[in-house]
Amino acid sequence: MEEVAALTDPAVITKFTAAADIVNRALEKVVAACVESASIYDICVLGDQYIVEELKKCYNKKNISKNIAMPTCISVNNVVCHFSPLKTEAPILLKNNDVVKIEMGAHIDGFPAMVAHTIIVGNEVAAGRKANVIAAAHNALEVAIRTIRPGNSNVQVTHAVNDVVKEFKCNVVEGMLSHKIERNNLTSNKSILLCSNPSQIKAHEEAKFEEHEIYNVDVLVTTGDGKVKTASDFKTNIFRKSNQNYMLKIKASRALYSQVSKEFGTMAFSLRSFDDEKIARLGLTECLKTNVLLPYEVLVDKENEIVAQFATTILLMPSGTIKLTHGPSLANIKPDVSLSEKYQKIVEAPLRPKKSK
Question: Has residue 289 been placed in a domain?
């Protein structure tokens, strides 16, 4: 299997690590830019441009593809994910005490590193519902990546995440998936479902984790009931290629698809990347209708709810788990709920246990 062979090659791990280092630094830049009155569009451009410029500095002696794997997204308060506006859209500015979810990713030679992180604008000490939902998502991610280990199953992770989130009196965002990833493939055949419905959990295909696998672990938690919907007020601007083949009939569609294939391959891209957004959207209609491109829709919860998100890319190695991406400290988050002793022990456990002498 290609993915098993890949992680036995030190050069592949180096590419993952290099992509992750760039993403981690980009996240720091974006976190610093999330201040009161900052434009979400400007912040997204900042994140994307930083990744692109840093990628230019590495692996230049070989013909290796490298680009954004997930465009910068800034989703605020009850907006769940994938909000990444265009220049032509009405500007939206951040406000003090907004809960901001940042998502981004990069790849080198088809090996992607992804991250998501949640902050509060103003960086003031946060308590109550905001602190609880952020702590719930963060602790659930830490428990998840320690439960994802060879021999365990995806269902075990689903249940563990649910347990942690419930301790903070929150709910998982129903139906969201974390995927095993492979080279040039963000959504491979194994996945972990965020779900609290027993029948839906049972219906999801159970799979065991194996050594040398790679996962993008993505945890989204809400103060609401977990049921979210596609936003009616925001356009979808992020897409990726599918495995579907179709002979496109419209010239604009063929031009768009050709550019996507050349520049982004199978990774996610934003319409911001095109010189003429209107022409790009013109070609988009047929591509979506024929399923050769798939949308990352903007999802929203009810207006008074708050959503938090944390994500990381992990490598399951013989010596333990390597956590590639991460955000800054959450020292200003002060939840009024404490994690149970059972899960606190899991969170504190090292990802790569020391070998006994």
Answer: no
241 neighbors 264 (Cβ within 8 angstroms):
yes
What is the token pair recorded at 67? 């680009």
The parent domain of residue 309 ranges over 2-236+297-337
- Give the number of domains in the chain: 1
* CATH code for the domain in which residue 60 is found: 3.90.230.10
Q: Which residues pair with 311 in a beta bridge?
A: 116, 218
pLDDT in tens, 132-162: 999 999 999 999 999 999 999 999 999 999 9
Mean pLDDT of the chain: 94
Alpha-helix residue ranges (DSSP H) falling in the chain: 2-7, 10-33, 40-55, 128-147, 154-167, 198-203, 251-263, 277-289, 341-348
Task: Please state the pTM of the whole predicted model.
Answer: 0.95
Kindly give the pairing relationship between strand 177-181 and strand 191-193: antiparallel
For position 1, what pLDDT does the model report?
A: 36
For the segment 301-345, what is each residue's pLDDT rounded down to a tens digit?
999 999 999 999 999 999 999 999 999 999 999 999 999 999 999
> Which residues lie closer than 8 Å to 194 by C-beta, 6 or more apart?
158, 161, 172, 173, 174, 175, 176, 177, 178, 219, 220
Cα distance between residue 28 and residue 165, in whole Å: 26
